[in-house]
């Protein structure tokens, strides 16, 4: 079965019919201009060397070459066999803030949805690492234990909203401790072994009101677990919307009736990452900032998670590439004007 290594490249094939349509329109416009200058019956006498089929054929060959080149760049592959290989990876815990402040819309569509997209992008960038998912607000709980089933993680990720935890607030330290538990730390039935292959990624706006998150990050770092943070939101204050169902009914207010604002606390998130010997990155509407996190994870020590089967594919880009070259060579050998010494029109007639 043929599949493509870079299937998104195939979208460029849509440019081919667009170019064909533009070329047909230009030919029609040029023909109309000639008809304004002279009768159609005079064309052969005014332009004796003009050919009806040569320009169309040359353009068609160029379009075919472009199509074959796009297919070659997309790299068609054919699966030849299944091979066994050792599965190596790290253990990564993702702590996702679902407090009410994550509904703020200073980044679109809101902080929580942007966080969920960031987690999905992080999963797409990782290889064979195991992932656990912890959600937190005023308290925290494990949404997904360590697993290599990314599809299951994404399924659970889609179900997350701010109503999952009734205790509001932001307890980042408790979330870090819960993440450590997903690695087996503190489990009396499991032997804890320090290694350099574990990391915790905290995604939050950084407004920590409940506990000492830096102390929790230092405890994790003492066990060789790196703690990284991703900041969601903008540093300018923004109100927290309130919803009834799917309809916004206003903004959150305090006991005095004043609108409550929330802002990204970069100082707190930076301090947590520093205590956890990790890095802090800031997300925004354009870039979720995960590339630096991915590089750190890729540099972690890898453990063996046993053997697994991999599909071994063979690239077949050579065939469309050869076809493209043949089309270009044929296009070069065809002249737009009739050649008296070598005239294919006579052969066609």
What does this molecule look like?
38% of the residues lie in helices and 23% in strands. The two termini are 44 Å apart. The chain has helices spanning 15-37, 43-46, 54-74, 111-125, 150-158, 172-182, 213-222, 266-275, 291-298, 318-333, 344-348; strands at residues 2-4, 76-89, 91-97, 130-136, 140-147, 198-204, 225-231, 238-239, 241-244, 247-251, 261-262, 280-282, 303-315. The chain has a 6-stranded mixed sheet with strand order 5-4-3-6-7-12, with helices on both faces. The chain has 2 domains: 2-75 and 317-348, no CATH class; 85-307, Rossmann fold. It is an alpha/beta fold and 349 residues long.
Summed up, the helix count is 11
Task: Indicate the CATH architecture of the largest domain.
Answer: 3-Layer(aba) Sandwich
Number of domains: 2
Mean pLDDT: 84
Total strands:
13
Core attributes:
alpha/beta, Rossmann fold, 349 residues, six-stranded mixed β-sheet, elongated
Q: What's the topology here?
A:
Blueprint: E1 2-4, H1 15-37, H2 43-46, H3 54-74, E2 76-89, E3 91-97, H4 111-125, E4 130-136, E5 140-147, H5 150-158, H6 172-182, E6 198-204, H7 213-222, E7 225-231, E8 238-239, E9 241-244, E10 247-251, E11 261-262, H8 266-275, E12 280-282, H9 291-298, E13 303-315, H10 318-333, H11 344-348
Parallel strand pairs: 3-4, 3-6, 6-7, 7-12
Antiparallel strand pairs: 1-2, 2-13, 4-5, 8-11, 9-10
Short précis:
This protein is 38% helix and 23% strand.
